[in-house]
Design goal:
Length: 270
């Protein structure tokens, strides 16, 4: 499986159909977008989780545009909100696939459970839990969640509590989830499946404006995520284009002379 490097992340350049087949063998799927990439510049622990994830797939049309600018195009956007319905549709007749939904506000995951099970025609979502705010810092609460998942016989954990919380929680506790083989970090997808939060129109998603729709829908919660990181992200991408970008967590540092030569070389290619 080929990879495309965007800043300090190697993204799997894979089609949805191929990813769904590969997931039969298990693994953790994370879905990098601009917000994740900026967090990965500041959070070493989050970066470590990303390095250990079996699959890192593109969750952003913006990242697809960026990959073309860098000369290494990504073939398909696979957001968590697209991956999850594709996943349960693909495995609807596979009785080995039993999903536990973790996330969303009280009652929302149960609504999603009923709707999904109705679509697939079986009890594929076997249990749900909506954890309280700050649960990831409460050892007793985490043990309770682990017990709930293990006792449910789930083989898939789909967790939607936001990044980097969801990815960090999986990394810290997956070794205790003895029956779970597939881990899906899916953000707001549980809310989308329940229908209490609407996704952007398809045309907006296809042209890379889903972020704008979400920003207008939840400006207080999302303005910082989408607006404050935009310029720093573009600066970092330009640095990568001219081979000036440095992974903040890499021990190897480039010399100033090599950086200057890289810029000259990049300008000659333009």
């Amino acid at each position: 499986m080929t990879q495309v490097q965007l800043l300090n992340v190697n993204i799997n350049n894979v089609a949805m159909s191929d990813l769904l087949e590969k997931l039969q063998s298990g693994g953790l799927v994370v879905t990098p977008n601009v917000d994740h990439l900026m967090k990965l510049q500041r959070d070493r622990d989050f970066y470590g989780v990303y390095q250990d994830a079996e699959y890192r797939v593109c969750d952003s049309k913006i990242l697809m545009y960026v990959s073309r600018f860098l000369g290494t195009p990504i073939q398909e956007k696979i957001s968590g909100s697209d991956l999850f319905p594709a996943f349960y549709a693909h495995y609807r007749h596979d009785e080995r696939i039993k999903i536990f939904l973790l996330g969303a506000e009280e009652g929302i995951a149960e609504i999603a459970r009923r709707k999904i099970n109705s679509k697939v025609g079986r009890n594929m979502i076997i249990d749900t839990y909506s954890p309280p705010f700050g649960f990831e810092k409460d050892e007793q609460e985490c043990r309770k969640i682990i017990d709930l998942i293990n006792s449910s016989d789930a083989t898939v954990l789909a967790i939607g509590v936001g990044a980097p919380k969801q990815e960090m929680w999986i990394a810290r506790h997956r070794k205790y989830l003895h029956k779970v083989k597939i881990f899906l970090a899916i953000g707001a997808t549980i809310n989308f499946e329940a229908g209490n939060v609407k996704r952007s129109p398809k045309w907006m998603s296809e042209v890379g404006l889903e972020w704008l729709y979400r920003l207008l829908s939840e400006p207080r919660r999302l303005w910082k995520r989408y607006l404050m990181d935009a310029v720093p992200f573009l600066i970092l991408i330009c640095k990568q284009r001219f081979q000036l970008y440095r992974n903040p967590w890499s021990k190897a540092q480039r010399s100033p002379v090599k950086n200057i030569l890289s810029v000259v070389k990049g300008l000659k290619k333009m």
